[in-house]
Design a protein that fits this description.
The chain has 12 helices and 11 strands. It has about 425 residues and is of the alpha+beta class. The protein is elongated, with a radius of gyration of 35 Å. Keywords: Membrane, Transmembrane, Transmembrane helix.
């Protein structure tokens, strides 16, 4: 009995294209979005030799039903078409042919938050490349290879953006991002586009992309969102503009959540290290940790901004965004981050209370010592004064002190101070 042929052994593999999204977290961000700032950023970016063109912004704001009203935080400062023939990017994508792909387009969205998202459109350009591509898809090699390639491209993007930022810093104020301590390429999300399957074998081949068995029915322009790979069935073998816009929005927000998660992990490790520090060093470390958590508290505001952007989506983009939110479990990630922030804040408050109690105890000891010394000093003053005043028929406190020797008076004062110290220690 002969073995059934693998999908890659089919006589004619279905066409496929891949669109990747690579979020990049930068250490510098922009102040509040204003038309003046946007104009300056656009002008500087457009003058860069790696920028081919600036994309239209007609899809932003309620211009028509084809446009969306996004909050300023989620509105791109610039939308750039990158010159894929630029030597730096050519080198980064030089190994694409090994996995049967060729770069067809490269786009960038830069946001005021310091997050940039690089979109690459890839596709085989020959039957031989198509066969190689499907082989790499089936054996999962393409996922790792694409991640490495886009990691290199993201590194190039960081360098050219920082050069642009150096120019921009002379014209507008750039702030330090609270999302990351160093420029970093976060990940690469992959969207595979292929035609509606024309046979059972072709359906099995297509749905291996998302590690699932094919459903009983599927149709043109149907999307299957998953956490790693997304599958789009489109007979035009292209990712629609609506899908591209929604993916940019969700990748941006997901990148911000990821950056906050990394920041909170760092805060937790700092929290654990406090136990090994002395009181003075612990207070300094706690102050730095509080500053980090102050920036993390902006997470709740960012969540509100994102909700505003979701409400501003129109047409089919709203259900697309909701489907992605469900697939990526964005709501669960948000709740998890808020719970972590609450845990760390509670732990910080506990450490603060411990340090404050220690400080209060030290202050009370100092005050007790000052009181004891004052008591002894007052006693000595009364004894000295009682020797110099005239004692008449009226009895008073000086008469009492005149009947006692200086040594006994001081001894009584010291005994009183000792009793005060014992009472203080017992109460603590």
């Amino acid at each position: 009995m002969s073995a059934s042929p693998s999908p890659s052994a089919l006589l004619c593999s279905p066409p496929v294209s891949i669109v990747t999204y690579t979020p990049i977290a930068l250490t510098r961000k922009f102040s509040a979005l204003t038309p003046s700032l946007a104009s300056k950023v656009e002008e500087v970016m457009h003058s860069q030799d790696w920028v081919l063109n600036q994309e239209s912004k007609l899809d932003m704001g309620y211009v028509s039903t084809d446009s969306d009203l996004l909050s300023p935080m989620f509105t791109p400062l610039v939308k750039l078409e990158i010159d894929r023939e630029s030597p730096a990017f050519q080198h980064a994508f030089s190994t694409l042919e090994e996995i049967g792909l060729k770069l067809q387009g490269l786009n960038l969205r830069l946001y005021q938050t310091g997050i940039a998202t690089l979109q690459a459109t890839l596709a085989p350009t020959s039957e031989a490349q198509l066969t190689v591509c499907w082989q790499k898809i089936e054996n999962r090699d393409i996922e790792q290879r694409l991640s490495l390639i886009l990691q290199a491209a993201g590194g190039v993007m960081i360098n050219v953006l920082n050069t642009s930022f150096d120019t921009l810093s002379k014209r507008c104020k750039l702030l330090t991002s609270e999302l990351t301590d160093s420029d970093a390429v976060l990940w690469t999300g992959r969207c595979y586009i292929t035609r509606v399957p024309e046979s059972t074998e072709e359906a099995i081949q297509a749905f291996t992309i998302i590690h699932e068995c094919p459903p009983t029915d599927y149709e043109d322009n149907e999307a299957f969102f998953r956490s790693g790979n997304c599958l789009f069935l489109n007979n035009d073998i292209s990712l629609s503009l609506d899908n591209r816009r929604v993916l940019f929005l969700l990748q941006h927000y997901n990148a911000m959540l990821y950056a906050y998660q990394q920041s909170m992990s760092s805060a937790y490790h700092q929290l654990q290290s406090l136990k090994a520090l002395s009181s003075s060093r612990r207070r300094k470390a706690l102050e730095k940790l509080i500053q980090r958590m102050v920036s993390i508290r902006t997470l709740e505001y960012i969540r509100l901004e994102f909700c505003d952007s979701l409400r501003g989506l129109q047409g089919s983009r709203k259900p697309l965004a909701n489907a992605l939110i469900d697939a990526w479990e964005i709501n669960a990630v948000e709740d998890s981050l808020l719970d972590r922030a609450a845990y760390i804040n509670n732990a910080i408050s506990s450490y603060e209370n411990q340090l404050n109690r220690a400080i209060n105890k030290s202050i009370e000891v100092i005050l007790m010592l000052i009181g004891g010394i004052s008591l002894v000093d007052i006693t000595n003053n009364f004894v000295a004064a009682s020797q110099s005043v005239k004692h008449d028929s009226t009895w008073g406190i000086y008469d009492i002190f005149s009947l006692m020797s200086s040594e006994n008076t001081v001894n009584l004062a010291l005994i009183a101070v000792l009793l005060m110290a014992l009472l203080f220690a017992k109460n603590k």
